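call fold target=Thiamine-phosphate synthase
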Amino acid sequence: MKRTDMRVYAVTDRHWLNGETLYSQVEKALEGGATFIQLREKKLDEESFLKEAIEIQKLCKKHHVPFVINDNVDIALKINADGVHVGQSDMEAGDVRAKLGKDKIIGVSAHTVEEALTAQKKGADYLGVGAVFPTSSKDDVSVLSLETLKAICHAVSIPVVAIGGISQDNIDKLYGSGIDGVAVISAIFGQKDIKKATRELVCKTKKL
């Protein structure tokens, strides 16, 4: 995993499907230049989740883009995914590392400098930090100040991805913060032209 892999980190959400398949949406995002894909399923049954993960993993391999699973370490292990992303209330990074092995990518959500440093110490490869703006995707996360985001970037040596409410209209407010990329959901999958939206985000993240 390279820092540039973090630039446009697309997180799936079937809320935005609108009759389309997740596969076709992810394919468009990859064609638009998405550099990282996280499969996030909160309500799908295990069998359907596994089948979907295998299909999207193939897409990501075709485009040579890292593919991680949100939260579900067992699914990541079963399909030999590139890694997993866990939150503060999920399995600890050290335990995930023990289960997946030393060569897998482990991402951890962090909201404070303390959480960020602990995650790094426990073996996280990158951090997802937010929410940096108000977001409808997660209603249990408060908005971080730009100062906290900068402090986290300064405190750790691993890549930092900002997440939460990021769009074409506000991404410029993150310039100079020290982040390596942005993780987005609706800014890609909630757009009518997913490929175009992704391409525009790729251009904007070059200024980070």
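return ok
The chain has eight helices and eight strands. The domain at 3-205 is CATH 3.20.20.70 (TIM Barrel).
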